[in-house]
Design goal:
By secondary structure, this protein is of the alpha/beta class. It is built from 8 helices and 5 strands.
């Protein structure tokens, strides 16, 4: 049997869903082996739980957030486990994952979050990042957070190339993979690339 190729999964979360790209092979020349969207919620009210929580008494908002997070986690965990099985069936062993993240500033208590619309958006972003991080851990996939703002610089450093060269290689990766290859797929691919390089560096 041919040896399994190492693969890494990159995820770019949004409210209620995440774009996912898996890369496999050597970090110097990986290929896209999977692309998909994980839907953790199907309607705005189901996904935008902090927005909904603003209209509820605090205890009910807390209960909604707890139950929603667990439900989102179950969906994400199942989707990642299915993707890992699909990758293995195709000769790729998932070895790492990465979640594209925001600034990572600590959030205040829930009562303060619900009084501020910008904080509601920040909290929902962090909720889905945490769900994907936990889902990866529960699937026994080493996972890291990667700052969206620093993504190109971190990827260029991990691969030992200039940012300009990285852009050309990312474009070539997209041409080989085909559409869709929008911002979500590019950021997910860069996150997966960083995770793949980090795994290779730890061997």
């Amino acid at each position: 049997m041919a040896p399994m190729r190492p693969s890494a999964i990159g995820m770019r979360p949004h409210t209620g869903w995440a774009a996912v790209v898996a890369l496999a092979g050597a970090p110097s020349g990986p290929e896209v082996v999977a692309r998909r969207r994980i839907d953790m919620a199907t309607t705005f009210d189901e996904g935008a739980v902090y927005h909904v929580g603003r209209e509820l008494p605090l205890p009910r908002a807390e209960a909604l957030l707890r139950s929603s997070e667990e439900r989102f986690l179950r969906v994400a965990r199942t989707a990642l486990a299915d993707l890992a099985d699909e990758l293995r069936a195709g000769g790729c062993e998932p070895v790492a994952s990465a979640v594209v993240s925001g600034g990572g500033r600590p959030l205040p208590p829930l009562q303060a979050i619900l009084r501020s619309h910008p904080l509601v958006h920040a909290a929902e972003g962090e909720l889905y990042r945490q769900v994907l991080l936990r889902a990866s851990e529960e699937c026994r996939l080493p996972v890291q957070r990667v700052s969206a703002k620093e993504l190109p610089a971190l990827a260029a450093r991990a691969l030992g190339v200039t940012p300009e060269r990285l852009g050309a290689r990312l474009a070539a990766l997209g041409r080989a993979a085909g559409k869709p290859w929008a911002r979500d797929q590019k950021e997910s691919a860069l996150a997966a690339w960083i995770a793949l390089a980090a795994h290779r560096g730890s061997d």
